[in-house]
Design brief:
alpha+beta, 2 domains, 8-stranded antiparallel beta barrel, 41% strand
Protein backbone atom coordinates (compact mmCIF):
# COMPACT_ATOMS: atom_id res chain seq x y z
CA UNK A 1 0.00 0.00 0.00
CA UNK A 2 2.83 2.38 0.92
CA UNK A 3 4.56 1.58 -2.39
CA UNK A 4 1.40 2.43 -4.34
CA UNK A 5 1.06 5.78 -2.54
CA UNK A 6 4.72 6.61 -3.23
CA UNK A 7 4.32 5.78 -6.93
CA UNK A 8 1.23 7.97 -7.10
CA UNK A 9 3.10 10.81 -5.37
CA UNK A 10 6.08 10.51 -7.74
CA UNK A 11 3.76 10.37 -10.75
CA UNK A 12 1.89 13.49 -9.58
CA UNK A 13 5.17 15.33 -8.89
CA UNK A 14 6.53 14.32 -12.30
CA UNK A 15 3.35 15.50 -14.06
CA UNK A 16 3.46 18.84 -12.25
CA UNK A 17 7.12 19.29 -13.14
CA UNK A 18 6.48 18.36 -16.80
CA UNK A 19 3.57 20.82 -16.94
CA UNK A 20 5.72 23.58 -15.49
CA UNK A 21 8.52 22.89 -18.00
CA UNK A 22 6.02 22.87 -20.89
CA UNK A 23 4.52 26.17 -19.74
CA UNK A 24 7.96 27.75 -19.34
CA UNK A 25 9.05 26.63 -22.83
CA UNK A 26 5.82 27.94 -24.37
CA UNK A 27 6.09 31.35 -22.67
CA UNK A 28 9.78 31.77 -23.54
CA UNK A 29 9.06 30.83 -27.18
CA UNK A 30 6.37 33.52 -27.42
CA UNK A 31 8.48 36.28 -25.85
CA UNK A 32 11.78 36.55 -27.70
CA UNK A 33 13.93 39.13 -25.92
CA UNK A 34 16.14 39.44 -29.01
CA UNK A 35 13.27 40.64 -31.20
CA UNK A 36 12.72 44.38 -31.36
CA UNK A 37 9.64 45.81 -29.63
CA UNK A 38 6.73 46.34 -32.01
CA UNK A 39 6.84 50.08 -31.26
CA UNK A 40 10.14 50.19 -33.19
CA UNK A 41 8.68 48.56 -36.30
CA UNK A 42 6.69 50.74 -38.66
CA UNK A 43 4.89 50.37 -41.97
CA UNK A 44 6.84 50.99 -45.15
CA UNK A 45 5.14 52.10 -48.39
CA UNK A 46 7.26 52.95 -51.41
CA UNK A 47 6.61 53.20 -55.14
CA UNK A 48 9.32 53.23 -57.78
CA UNK A 49 9.63 53.61 -61.52
CA UNK A 50 12.03 51.49 -63.51
CA UNK A 51 12.46 53.20 -66.89
CA UNK A 52 16.27 53.16 -66.33
CA UNK A 53 16.26 49.47 -65.35
CA UNK A 54 17.59 47.35 -68.23
CA UNK A 55 17.78 44.00 -66.44
CA UNK A 56 21.57 44.06 -66.46
CA UNK A 57 23.80 44.23 -63.39
CA UNK A 58 24.21 47.81 -62.18
CA UNK A 59 20.93 49.13 -63.56
CA UNK A 60 18.50 50.87 -61.22
CA UNK A 61 14.97 51.98 -60.41
CA UNK A 62 14.07 55.34 -58.85
CA UNK A 63 11.82 55.90 -55.82
CA UNK A 64 8.81 58.08 -56.78
CA UNK A 65 7.03 58.08 -53.39
CA UNK A 66 7.99 57.07 -49.88
CA UNK A 67 6.51 57.34 -46.41
CA UNK A 68 10.01 57.32 -44.87
CA UNK A 69 11.80 60.64 -44.62
CA UNK A 70 15.23 58.97 -44.81
CA UNK A 71 14.26 57.42 -48.17
CA UNK A 72 13.28 60.50 -50.15
CA UNK A 73 11.86 60.69 -53.67
CA UNK A 74 14.76 60.28 -56.09
CA UNK A 75 16.47 57.54 -54.06
CA UNK A 76 17.85 54.88 -56.39
CA UNK A 77 17.69 51.11 -56.03
CA UNK A 78 20.73 49.52 -57.71
CA UNK A 79 20.63 45.82 -58.65
CA UNK A 80 23.98 43.97 -58.55
CA UNK A 81 22.94 40.86 -60.49
CA UNK A 82 21.32 40.57 -63.89
CA UNK A 83 17.69 39.52 -64.21
CA UNK A 84 17.01 36.02 -65.52
CA UNK A 85 19.64 34.16 -63.47
CA UNK A 86 18.12 31.85 -62.38
CA UNK A 87 15.69 31.76 -65.29
CA UNK A 88 12.46 33.67 -64.72
CA UNK A 89 13.70 35.51 -61.63
CA UNK A 90 15.41 38.67 -60.59
CA UNK A 91 17.45 37.55 -57.56
CA UNK A 92 19.92 40.24 -56.64
CA UNK A 93 21.81 42.06 -53.94
CA UNK A 94 20.58 45.65 -53.90
CA UNK A 95 21.87 49.00 -52.75
CA UNK A 96 19.32 51.60 -51.71
CA UNK A 97 21.16 54.86 -52.44
CA UNK A 98 19.54 57.94 -50.90
CA UNK A 99 22.50 60.17 -51.84
CA UNK A 100 25.16 61.92 -49.74
CA UNK A 101 26.57 58.58 -48.49
CA UNK A 102 23.23 57.35 -47.15
CA UNK A 103 22.88 53.75 -48.29
CA UNK A 104 21.22 50.50 -47.21
CA UNK A 105 22.12 46.98 -48.28
CA UNK A 106 19.64 44.24 -49.03
CA UNK A 107 18.44 41.46 -51.28
CA UNK A 108 15.47 41.33 -53.65
CA UNK A 109 13.86 38.38 -55.39
CA UNK A 110 11.15 38.94 -57.97
CA UNK A 111 9.27 36.41 -60.08
CA UNK A 112 9.44 37.99 -63.53
CA UNK A 113 6.29 36.14 -64.65
CA UNK A 114 3.99 37.27 -61.84
CA UNK A 115 5.70 40.56 -60.91
CA UNK A 116 5.59 39.55 -57.22
CA UNK A 117 8.51 39.17 -54.84
CA UNK A 118 10.28 40.03 -51.61
CA UNK A 119 13.03 42.43 -50.55
CA UNK A 120 14.86 42.41 -47.24
CA UNK A 121 17.31 45.00 -45.94
CA UNK A 122 19.75 44.27 -43.14
CA UNK A 123 21.79 47.43 -42.49
CA UNK A 124 23.03 50.68 -43.88
CA UNK A 125 25.35 53.65 -43.50
CA UNK A 126 24.80 57.36 -42.96
CA UNK A 127 21.15 58.21 -42.29
CA UNK A 128 20.26 54.58 -43.10
CA UNK A 129 22.58 53.06 -40.48
CA UNK A 130 20.76 50.23 -38.69
CA UNK A 131 17.98 50.15 -41.32
CA UNK A 132 16.21 46.81 -41.60
CA UNK A 133 13.09 46.00 -43.56
CA UNK A 134 11.02 43.19 -45.01
CA UNK A 135 8.78 44.23 -47.88
CA UNK A 136 6.48 42.53 -50.34
CA UNK A 137 7.14 43.62 -53.91
CA UNK A 138 4.27 44.04 -56.36
CA UNK A 139 5.17 45.12 -59.89
CA UNK A 140 1.94 43.99 -61.54
CA UNK A 141 1.05 47.62 -62.35
CA UNK A 142 3.35 50.19 -60.79
CA UNK A 143 6.15 48.79 -58.64
CA UNK A 144 5.27 48.97 -54.94
CA UNK A 145 7.02 47.92 -51.76
CA UNK A 146 4.75 47.36 -48.77
CA UNK A 147 6.03 45.95 -45.48
CA UNK A 148 7.70 46.85 -42.21
CA UNK A 149 10.92 48.60 -41.31
CA UNK A 150 12.88 49.75 -38.33
CA UNK A 151 16.21 51.16 -37.28
CA UNK A 152 18.43 49.14 -34.96
CA UNK A 153 20.53 51.07 -32.49
CA UNK A 154 24.02 51.49 -33.92
CA UNK A 155 26.86 52.30 -31.57
Amino acid sequence: MKSNAMRTGFTLAFMLLAGFVALTVTVSAEVDPASPPSARTRSLHVTKECSEYSGSAGSFCTITSSNIQRIPVGTRVYYDQAAGVPAGLLDSNVVLDAGDGNRALGRCTLDLTTGLGLCTFSDGIGDLAGFHARVAVDCTAECRWDGVYGFAKVD
